[in-house]
Design goal:
The protein is of the alpha+beta class. It is about 25% helix and about 25% strand. Strands 16-12-14-13-19-20-18-21 form an eight-stranded antiparallel β-sheet. It has a five-stranded antiparallel β-sheet with strand order 5-6-10-8-9. It has a four-stranded mixed β-sheet with strand order 1-2-4-3, with helices on one face. Strand 1 and strand 2 form a beta hairpin. The protein binds flavin-adenine dinucleotide.
């Protein structure tokens, strides 16, 4: 007989499903109790399941859905936010923006929890200026393998191993982070089109020098002279004086749209090299050549994908892979090689993003490093996809780069030490705090973490 408490879980890419017993603790004491009772297949925290691969799954074990730990308290004077580990960044935004404060780092969706953001040490469009999420976390409460809750300051080595530690050092039940001041819920956005990859990279570099938030969409399906053409978006927080008169009185109003639902059924193969190329062509042509200081809402600038609920289903039953790499600036030529391979493989990528990352944070498993990061989505089908991505992994590793574990569902374990040279240090600390491997995930088993 099947166990009624068992639930099938996947990441956002909807590949690699496995089942686990999912429990939903209501507070830190319940988390501690559930950790103490963990069975032989271990236990793992899960936030909103927005990591793409198998990071928030534990086949045959216990997964704690942390989303009931969702309190958010913002100190309007200091800009410190005290959050339950399962509070979403969207909830933080709703509490903080009307008070004139803003999350220091936002990924491409507001539907991630602060615990998930810390465990993957997420980066945003401002990484070149502001670093990753963990750099703004002052302290946290971590429930360890012994079921004890410990208060950790950010300089504590266990705190640093937790930042980017993929939930494998314990469960974050709450944290305090510092927010940044803002005067409005609008952005001033510059948009420029670049005809090829060299121009795109040069424009992105120039935009980084002038703006706190930058990102580029890149067409990975064109070749020849148009290889790597794209669109650079650069944003600054708007001041009340930048807004039209009627908006000024409520400059800090924040009402994110709930988003339209994606269709529940899509034809198989909706996204194929032909539809993807047609989409990319239209997207590129629709963008202005050079538009300055357009007012956009925070949601439009930071979270356009949140406008379609459940958009991940558009990739159909087999799901999709998101591949994100970073290579040092000196190895920028790897970005060209990767786009050449994607373009000649006709890889049906529409959501491809190029960005420059700034300094690393102290976490041994944290992804960001100074360099170029390229992110691409691809339908998880086609005989050659695994071979294509294995080849890209090797290119990236040889260049001293790495792939992002929050997006991964298929990396070969032998490449982890090459890509994350401090993994030994992290494993040593982890085996001290969790000698029996209480915290475990499908990703951890697959990669030997
Ligand atoms: C549309 C979209 C855009 C994105 N854009 C970006 C981006 O710009 N930059 C970026 O860096 N990432 C980005 N991501 C990835 C996403 O930010 C991360 O995967 C994030 O970890 C998801 O948070 P979550 O709450 O859904 O965590 P989950 O996916 O549920 O879990 C992720 C990991 O965190 C661990 N974890 C979760 N909660 C806790 C906790 N309380 N204590 C300890 N460990 C915990 C889990 O065990 C797991 O290993 C994006 C994802 C999507 C879907």
């Amino acid at each position: 007989m099947s166990d009624p408490a068992r639930t099938v879980l996947t990441g956002w890419g909807r590949t690699a499903p496995t089942s686990a017993t999912v429990l939903r603790p209501r507070d830190g004491d319940q988390v501690a109790d559930m950790v103490r009772r963990a069975g032989p297949r271990g236990v793992l925290a899960r936030g909103l399941g927005r990591s793409y691969g198998d990071a928030a799954q534990d086949a045959g074990g216990t997964v704690l859905d942390l989303t009931a730990l969702d309190t958010v308290g913002v100190d309007a004077e200091t800009g410190l936010a005290a959050c339950g580990g399962g509070a979403s960044l969207g909830q933080v935004m709703q509490a903080a923006i009307p008070l004139g404060w803003f999350p220091p780092v936002l990924p491409g969706t507001r539907h991630v929890t602060v615990g998930g953001a810390l465990a993957t040490d997420v980066h945003g469009k401002n990484h070149h200026r502001s670093g990753s999420f963990a750099s703004h976390v002052r302290s946290m409460t971590l429930v360890g393998a012994d079921g004890e809750a410990r208060r950790l300051e950010s300089a504590d080595p266990l705190s640093q191993a937790t930042a980017g530690g993929m939930g494998l050092t314990g469960i974050v039940t709450d944290l305090v982070m510092s927010l940044r001041p803002v005067e409005s819920s609008f952005m001033q956005v510059d948009t420029t089109r670049a005809p090829d990859l060299d121009a795109l990279m040069a424009q992105l570099e120039a935009a980084d020098a002038a703006h706190p938030y930058t990102v580029a969409w890149v067409d990975c399906l064109t070749g020849g002279r148009r290889l790597g053409r794209g669109i650079v978006y650069a944003g600054d927080h708007a001041a009340p004086a930048d807004l039209p008169e009627p908006e000024r009185a409520a400059a800090l109003r924040f009402e994110p749209p709930t988003g339209l639902p994606a269709p529940t059924w899509t034809p198989a193969g909706l996204l194929n090299p032909h539809t993807a190329a047609a989409f990319n062509e239209a997207w590129f042509r629709k963008a202005p050549r050079d538009r300055r200081q357009q007012l956009q809402t925070i949601s439009t600038f930071f979270h356009p994908l949140d406008g379609v609920r459940g958009w991940n289903r558009l990739y159909g039953h087999a799901g999709f892979v998101q591949y994100q790499l970073v290579v040092p600036f000196a190895e920028g030529g790897v970005v060209r090689k990767v786009i050449e391979r994607l373009s000649s493989a006709r890889a049906a990528t529409v959501l491809a993003v190029l960005k420059r990352l700034g300094a690393s944070s102290p976490g041994p498993l944290s992804f960001p490093m100074p360099g170029w990061t390229l992110t691409v989505d691809m339908p998880a089908r086609g005989r050659d996809l695994a071979r294509l991505l294995d080849g890209l992994d090797q290119l990236v590793a040889d260049a001293g780069g790495r792939v992002y574990l929050a997006k991964d569902a298929r990396l070969r374990p032998e490449l982890v030490a090459e890509m994350y040279p401090r993994v030994g240090e992290w494993l040593e600390l982890r085996s001290r705090v969790d000698p029996h491997g209480c915290f475990v995930s499908d990703l951890a088993r697959r990669l030997g973490l």
